[in-house]
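Hi R.,

Here's the chain you asked about this morning:
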Amino acid sequence: MIQTLPLALPGTLVDHHRIDLTALYSKGWGVHFFDVAGAPNGEVYALYGVYRHTYGVTDEEPDPEKANFGYRVITRYSADAEVLGSALFRTGGADEGDSAVADGGDISLCVLPDGILAVSAKPNNTTLVAPDLSRVLAVYDSKDGRPFEQFTPAEGDPFACSVSVTPSGRLLCTVAEYGVWRYGNVLTNLVGVADGALTADTKPVINTLASLDPEPARHSDVDLRAHATHQGAPVGMANRPRPALTELVAGEDRLSNWHSSRLGRPVPLSDNLFVVPFYAKTFRGGSRGQPFVFALVNDQGEMTGRLHGLHEWRDSPFTGFCFNLAADAHRGHAFHLNRYGLYAWNRAGVLRAKLDTENKTFKPLTHFVLGACAPNGDLLLVHTKQHLILRIPAPDDLTGLAAAVEDALRAYTRRRTALKKEWGPVNWHWTQTSAPVHRI
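And here is the predicted structure, written out as tokens:
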């Protein structure tokens, strides 16, 4: 079923801070999408942020109508596209003192097999939230704030930077390490699989399969990751999967030899085959044409191939920094959306469909970003300016993708008009007051 879901701001939040929804983002405020995840029962969760920073206003400003702020919002939608509730926490999470959430960079969502929501962020912070968003169930916080804070391993309880679920319930994770590319902070560097359940009482060991930087700098005993292993021993120092992904394709980045490359969020194509994206260094003056690889890695850590058919310049994900991948693990389909098209591959890595945004029919896709695939395979796209999620039913055969997307884009226009009449958004900012809002 084609659906259109608004990224709604809690009305109580808008009123409390007297947010001027008519103001331009250049005035120092904004709404930004982070991630979306589908649940097996058809529900959808969306994660996005709202902030305000006004020049001349101090951090100690007591008046909420003037004060600067930053919040993360998680909204839950029913299978019938109704807003069921929202959860709200300050940017910074537990570090701000009024939230239990372990916040961080590159924040993402995942619905675990038991229905619990996992909120993960760099470096290796994972928070478990009740399905109804009413409370935090457990926090796995690395307490690793290097280089700004002294790191004491005994104080932290880390898990993963991101989590995804395979069809049988295995957890595909990324793990951050200190000293990646000789930087003095903690960056995502490892991909692994956890075969046990992640619950409020237990966390499984992550068996690492692949690495980006083979030799992070300045490692010592404090950098050993007991919850992530390679060949039965904690990851860290000289122990991690080799050869690294960047070593396997060393000759493809002639400019920087993959130094300062970044690891994207991997997605499962099946229980034992994953797509692991990584991207070469970005430059301030533009990075279009820089190399990137969507590697196929099995659960033995072998790079068995890649997603083929993309040109480094004509299909570059660096334009607009469109780095997301999504996968329908049950059908074995992988998807990528950037400014130049929507691409789809089969499990063998063969490009089976490209919907070119130069085509008038698919030009509206340039306004969307790829969120995820729901468990039933539906594509979840997000319009970043109109703040709407578009749910597109997935075809069994990728030859039907063009027709499915064309129908969805046509329906999007009609449904958007209907939502405008029902919700009355201000400058495409939607507010809701009917569903409960939880502070977590």
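One quick note: The two ends are 32 Å apart (CA to CA).

Cheers,
M.
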